[in-house]
Amino acid sequence: MLTLNINGKATQVDAEPDTPLLWVLRDHLQLTGTKFGCGAGLCGACTVHLDGQPVRSCATPLSAAAGKKIVTIEGVGHGRVGKAVQEAWQRLDVVQCGYCQSGQIMSAVALLEKNRKPSDADIDGAMEGNICRCGTYVRIRAGIHEAAKSLA
Question: Considering the entire predicted model, what is its pTM?
């Protein structure tokens, strides 16, 4: 039994230490907002925060998450930056199919937590590796700029 801090709550999990965090979140805890994309940490759909850093949960073993603060898409909106990003996404209608967007939002929040005035180059660097098959990259960038303005 491991105790994880997920979205501010201590949660007991009975899973093998090498189980990917993604499957613990989705299958054991029914936190299904974090999506499975590639399973190799390449697409970003499964992005969550570990101690404020964006990580690919499909490639993060449960043992690496123990003792750290885990934030998922279900909890990111409780913070000021997460709420600003989610509101900007809605205002600008960023989403097309939406499958990748929880990972996109998690990466955008991590960027804005560190840099409240990102340039396009800063955004492109922070979002690199978050793939959107619908090609909403221009709207994602606009959403990040919109969220940054609302946080100023």
Answer: 0.96
